[in-house]
Fold these 3 entries.
Entry 1:
Amino acid sequence: MNITSRFVLLGIASLAAAVSLPAGAQVYVGSPGAKLLDSVLGGPRWAPVSTLDVAGVTLGMTPDEARAALRKSGFAPNAKDPQQDGWSAIVSQRAAERIGGNVDRSKVPMFTKVKGTQGETVEVWYAATREGPRASSIKYRMPTVRMERAAFLKGVADKYGNPTFQEGARGLWCTKPEKVCASYASQQLPTLVIESSHAFHEVDLTTGQRYRDEQKALTAAAVEASAPKDAKASF
């Protein structure tokens, strides 16, 4: 069953759900709504999101790996990417705010942006992690004036299979055990989102909020280790 047909089926199932299912039926943890859609659409729809790619780029790639993947997919990255503070620079700057001292000024790539011959663009954004910059968001955008919606949706279905959740021309591929896989929710785990709007067809692959929170916690712990709040009162 192709993704266009699944959008139609979802509309029918959603209408039934709106009438007979509780408000939380879109929560995908064995809820009645999830079970109904599974029975109609043929089984669980969790996706191995961490292994999916957009234009050859997967989450967690280094800038060099991402740029090589983009070149292999037919894109031509610029010679240099915009820069951001690296992990050690972030930690040292925040530690210096507490105890002073020298500040690390090291930089790492912030994002890689490429444009294709059909007007499409790909943006790969990097998180400055302890291990170095890693791809945390990959977004593909194609103008609708260059591709019919049906062709885009077919390409999505051929590459990624069936989504976990659909709403109109928007589909989400969620990682088990994401508690709420729906367009109104902030996804905690790696997620692939596709959307066909009036102006653009888009594919967006992201690490999720849990990853961002973990990186913040690791940074805070490193700052605390470098400049602990252990001063003693001297008044």
Entry 2:
Amino acid sequence: MTPQLRAGTLHVRIGAREIAAILAAALPITVLTWERSAGLVGLAWLIFCITQWRILVAEDSPARAALRNSASGGFIAFAAIVAVLSLLHGIPSRAFDNPSRFALVLPMLATIACLRPSCRAWLTGVSAAGVYVGVLALVQSLALDFEAASGFTNQNKFGFISATFALLGIAGMRLPANVRPPLALLVGGVVGALIAMLLSATRGAWVAFLVPLLSWLLFARVITPRHKAIAIGSVLAIAAALTLTSGTIVHSRLSAMIADLGSYIPGVVESSVDTRVELWRGSVMMFEAHPLIGIGPGRYREANRQLIAEGHLSERIAEHGHPHNEYLAWLASGGVIGFAGLLAVLLGPLAYFIRCACGGGGTAPELVRGLGLGGALFVAATMIFAFTDAYFYIHYATVYYALTVAMLVGFIEAEKARR
């Protein structure tokens, strides 16, 4: 951004690098405000990437190197598998509207690697979003008497995306001071995001936050054993207090889940837990009938109703278009082949981020290790949450995952190219 003084007026010229930074910050700020906003940000990114085609195809462009890693490879493999399933099933293109959004990853990360925008703007957006969802959750829970905070979107997605804001903010604290927002803003964002996550009453989001965080604290080599013990002990003590104290939202939700699991009878649906287990049973039946290529994307509801008509499942799940489990959704709709595609877009980025976080035994730049940690926590949380929710069934959740991975990979590759 170049300030120029003309005739007593300060004019600010915004270049491509600044536009990239603004678009990066726009995603976390808007994703939980309006469900279509993530799609609009993704469209803006796509148009912006097209305008930058010259730098992407230049001979000395770092774009090619940025695409040669397991994160990009995972998305390329997923695209190939979806194409194979489309040919085998003859599925109309609309069935692949949602998975097609993963295509945004490749041009976006390549553009970021070439332009090298600062990640400060994006992380500022994450922190601001954390503060925003925290305030929103408090207003909905305390002033408006909502049973569970949900923002302006789905309750489960609100809780989980808030959890990712907290994890990304924690990782942001590991970055050098000159490339991250003020520590006070980061802490405020983490606290706000945690409040929103708790008040959403989303059990899957709680687990998705705790498991990656505790795993990092346990295995991190940059934390001394004494500090590890303090951090892990504090997290576990808070979690135990919320779980065991009667009247807390955590205690109520976990007690209800245990009671529902204990009383579940196949074919009888009377709670959200019963619904999930019944849907999971149906998904396993679909997979067993078509193990290689599944029933076909977009056909879950139809197959579900067929099993109900045959008397295998409860009629109370007839309207569900997914099994509230991303892994079972892909096993049912795409068989082993489709499941491999899902694993590619999860494990490919996870492996890449873990390598960056480890940083060759600590020799990698601090920025690469910090962003690698954020990416690893983000993808690991998504993988855990996917056990309790068909996360990629919703368009904006798919775009949020794809664009966040792309930004993190792009920032990392830009730093590598700078070296």
Entry 3:
Amino acid sequence: MVLPEMSQDQVKRVSTLVAAPMSMCLYAACRDLFVTDGVKLE
């Protein structure tokens, strides 16, 4: 991928297409780390 040769709109689109799956992967990887049994919301 050659970002300097791409237009600004193309770079924004690529970054959006990459960010969404990365966000889902990060959420899935961290989801279980932040869950604690026995903690109740008050």
